[in-house]
Amino acid sequence: MQLAGKRVVVMGGSRGIGRSVALGFAREGAAVAICARGAAKLAETQAEIAALKVPAFAAPCDLAEAEQIARFIPEAAEALGGIDVLVNNASGFGATDDEAGWAASFAVDMMAIVRATHAALPWLETSGAGAVVNVSSISALRASSRSAPYGAIKAAVDHYTGSQAKMYASKGIRVNAVAPGSIEFPGGSWEKRRLEGAPLYEQIRNQIPAGRLGHPEEVADVVLFLASHRARWVTGQSIVVDGGQLIGP
Which positions, given as ranges, span the membrane (predicted)? Predict the structure, then answer.
């Protein structure tokens, strides 16, 4: 992927898709900075990155808090010597159609992207080949009675991704998004549903032609591609990574 030596910041990088993205970049030889709220998982993932013999920086950060993002990004840039790639991965998973659900999704799924990108711009501009990858969802592409705020805000993320691409093209920065389907990983919500025998798990699995839920690494591979020189003529796009879930029965 020609990512060796790149300096990568993954917002929400301690578990699930974020962890797989961070480790994927590290395996390619990139220096990686991650943040998350949970200190234990953050330290564990930082150790995994460092074990790959690349620079690894981690610091706690509540992505719903503007001042914490404003603190973390410069710290990460200093630790890595700059920023070439920013991955906005975290989600507030606002499911309920009430003030709390909307506030959670807006603060983390939307405003954390706005704030982190603004904070990283000085370093992305001087990179010479800056790239931003936002993590959206296939929930952005269809109506839902289960998680209305989450889907609506992810649709806004897709729209903002295109706007970012137009705004930053003259600065040499590409912006794209990935839209994962249902992804299962240890400690995640889908694993919990499977272990509990929740009917929704089987319902979702039956919608996917491959007969299984996705793995975080399968999303991470697309993130790495979009951040790489191989995707140098791709910008303003949202790439669905769902194993055919949207076109399933």
Answer: none
Characterize 163-197 residue by residue with b for buried, 16 or more Cβ atoms within 10 angstroms of its Cβ, and e for exposed.
ebbeebeeeebbbbbbbbbbbbbeebbbeebbeee
Convert the pLDDT of each residue in 129-164 to its tens digit. Answer: 999 999 999 999 999 888 899 999 999 999 999 999
Number of domains in the chain: 1
pTM of the predicted model over 0.90: yes
CATH number for position 190: 3.40.50.720
Residue 83 lies in a domain: yes
> Residue 105 is part of which domain span?
7-242
Backbone φ and ψ for 209, nearest 5 degrees, come out as -55, -35
Give the C-alpha separation, 240 to 200, whole Å.
Answer: 21
Can you give the pLDDT at residue 211? 93
Q: Which residues, 6 or more positions from 36, have their beta carbon under 8 angstroms from its beta carbon?
A: 12, 13, 14, 15, 18, 42, 60, 61, 90
Nearest Cα residue to 88 out of 73, 98, 104: 73
Query: Residue 8 — very low, low, confident or very high, per pLDDT cuts 50/70/90?
Result: very high
Catalytic (active-site) positions: 136-137, 150, 154
Residue 249: inside a domain: no
